[in-house]
């Protein structure tokens, strides 16, 4: 079997949904890592005209595919022949698909939008921050379908792992304390060898691009500040020399 080529930018959560599943199923793959600022340029737009990651090229089937949900569905249907991460009964099969779509339409967009308004939007918009942080807490759930781990659970992990960047004043080590069942589930998921291998790869690719674990360039954050929450607190307090100009 030839390796599946995975196009990604290492900071964002979505590519790691695909890598996590590839690792869990033991499917050989190779990574094409590009910088975020290059997603709208060739060769990325030659693979995905929409200029987004992840995308895959599977030489075993001569298929190029983008959109993480579509890729996950393809990998499960094509390669999970033992139904390790799926079910075959009518109800469970479609409930899995339902939760995958909710991850793409609910979890990812709400987490991402909340993080944007908290940290990146040029103006503070309290009503938007309030709305989207409430949506983040609303969509947090626990076991999704059936009595075993499935691709739906795997798809939720990368965004949940970054939830501290979608909430106000929540440090990384306390990110799921308000949701004990979710926290226990998340810790079971992230203790898996497949996740650990995925994160070792992510750390390597981030380092190659000169990025901190939170996606910011190395040297952009003051010494001793490691989380978005601490960084924003310092900025708001007027203690960051970058904002004194």
Automatic annotation (TrEMBL):
Residues 2-83 form the GST N-terminal domain. Pfam families: GST_C, GST_N_3. It catalyses: RX + glutathione = an S-substituted glutathione + a halide anion + H(+). Its EC number is 2.5.1.18. CDD domains: GST_N_Ure2p_like. Keywords: Transferase. Residues 89-211 form the GST C-terminal domain. The keyword Transferase applies. Belongs to the GST superfamily. This is glutathione transferase. It comes from Apiospora rasikravindrae. The lineage of its organism: Eukaryota, Fungi, Dikarya, Ascomycota, Pezizomycotina.
